[in-house]
Amino acid sequence: MFTGIIEALCEITQIEESESNKIFTLTNPYKGEIYIDQSISHNGACLTVIEFNDDTYKVEAIRETLERTNLSSVQEGDIVNLERSLLPSSRVDGHFVQGHVDCTGTVKSITDKNGSWELAVNFPESYALYLIEKGSVCLNGISLTITGIQDNYLTVDIIPYTFEHTNVKNLSVGSLINIEFDSLGKYVVNYLKKTNS
After folding, report:
1. Where in the sequence is the domain holding 19, given as residue range(s)?
2. Are 187 and 108 in a shared domain?
3. Residues 80 and 130 in one domain
4. Nearest to 179 by CA among 73, 93, 107, 118
5. Over the Cα atoms of the chain, what is R_g?
6. In the predicted structure, residue 197 carries a pLDDT above the cut 80
C-alpha cells in the first residue's frame, strides 16, 4: 500500500530481457534502507527488489505488468518516480494507492498557469465511471486531485513542489503515463453493478 507521495527519483541504468519479463537496474537512493523482497512503487507500479548494492538495485516486471504500464516502453536513462510502501505509523498525505496500475494514458497537454501547471491526460473511456471531480487519481505514482473530466481525458493541477520533485517535469505531449484509479471508487462501482443486475 502506498500514498502517492513521491519520495525520490532514480535513473534506469540497465534493462535486461528475461523470457517475457524485463529486469530493471536502477540507481539506489535508499542505500542501507533497501532489502530483498521490498515493495517499491515505480511510476505507480509496485515491483519487488530482487538484488541490490550501495549504488543500484534490481526489480523484475512480468508480462502482466509490462502490458498494463509504461514500463514496457521506458528506456535506459529514463527517470522514475519512487515510493516505498506505507508504514502503519505514517500519515496518509495522498490517498490509498495499491501500486496496481489499471492502464496507461497519454499526455494531451501541459499548460503553464503561472505558478502551477495543468496536466491533461487521455485515458480509455471505459474507466470514466471511476472518476469524479475533486476525487483522487494516481498518475505515474503521484496522488493528484482531479480538476476536470471530459469524455476521454482528465485534468489535474500540478503544484511547483510536485513539478520539481517528480518526473512530471520530464513529460511532454504524447508521453505514456501510468494510471491507477481510486480503489474505493472501483469497489463502489463493482458493488452497484452486482446489486443492479
Report:
1. 8-84
2. yes
3. no
4. 107
5. 17
6. no
Distances (CA, A) of 13 to 36, 65, 76, 173: 19, 20, 5, 24
Does residue 61 share a domain with residue 111? Answer: no
pLDDT tens-digit map of 39-98: 999 999 999 999 999 999 999 999 999 999 999 999 999 999 999 998 877 777 788 889
Strands 136-139 and 176-181: antiparallel
146 strand-pairing partners: 156
| Spacing of C-alpha 61 from chain mean position | 14
With H, G, I as helix, E, B as strand and everything else as coil, classify residue 192.
Answer: helix
Beta bridge partners of 143: 138
Residue 80 burial (CB < 10 Å; 0-12/13-18/19+)? buried
Q: Which helix (H) or strand (E) holds 184?
A: helix 183-195
